[in-house]
Amino acid sequence: MSYTSEIYEALLKSAEDTEHGKSRLARRLRMSNNIVLIFAVDKTEYSLELYIQVDEVPKNNAFPHWKGIEIGIARLPEYGDDIAEYVLLKQTYQSEIHIFQVVIEDIKQALEALEDSKKMIFCLAAVLAKWRNFFLLEKDIRLSQEREQGLLGELIFLKQLLDICGYEAVTYWTGCNDETHDFYIKWNAVEVKTTAQKSPYKVAISSEYQLDAKDVLNNLYLQFFALRKSESDGFTLPEAVHDIENALASDVESLHQFEQNLQKYGYLKACEEMYQTGYFIRESGLYIVNSDFPRIEKSELNAGISNVTYAVSIDMCQKFLIPDAIKSVLKGGDSYVV
Question: Minimal CA–CA distance to 293: which of 270, 322, 267?
Fold first, then answer.
């Protein structure tokens, strides 16, 4: 449980236990950089609030807004301070408690990391803009299990490419943009498929274009990962993210692009604690998708048929399996023919 969740849980419990007294219960936090946060619960509405003390009120209150949160300027005279001004973030009835807590914890961590408190307003605006953009995409704050495993497979492959191609590998990753294929490497493309089901393995193909090599200048490949889930050990999705972040630590631009890609995919670092399942790689293989590969192509369909989904048996793909050395070939953009 995060610091923010613990604070609000304690405040809500106190609000339930005390029927009378102040209409608002609050906890004050002064961070090492002297930024002051006040976590509060409005007892009249049982809504959560965060007050951030500011030396100067931002002009026009120009903070990003979205449905589910109110942002304004406030004072707290009931706490003996009718001079200090605060930026107020208030949960509305349209926002679930756990979502509000995740946003506030993200704000707390971002402000806590500042060495110069004068950058507080800029930092706060940036964090709020990030969340507004995320909610505009109408995504859940936690990936579905299928999306979690899909992202994990793409990150495993990305890390392998980083070890070979260096920072440029980040630019190859397009799965976060919902493009036809997950990676475009020079003139080649790679579609990554991941499953945690037991063998015999099958991979789900989501359209008639996904294994169609006609839009690829060179070769199309299928990278397959079979994972084993574990609730007690194994590597988690956040650990895979941290592994890549560490590999990119000395290249700020690549790291920033990677973090943006994660957000576009729907993964939020502020929600890391929601991903506790561990995984082991049970099997993996890289396959070339040529004219004999089991697949459906757009050109094979009768007029009026579209949005095709189907499954491919990995057992039937073994003759298309190619050696790991292909990654060196992909780096140079050359072709490989079985």
Answer: 322
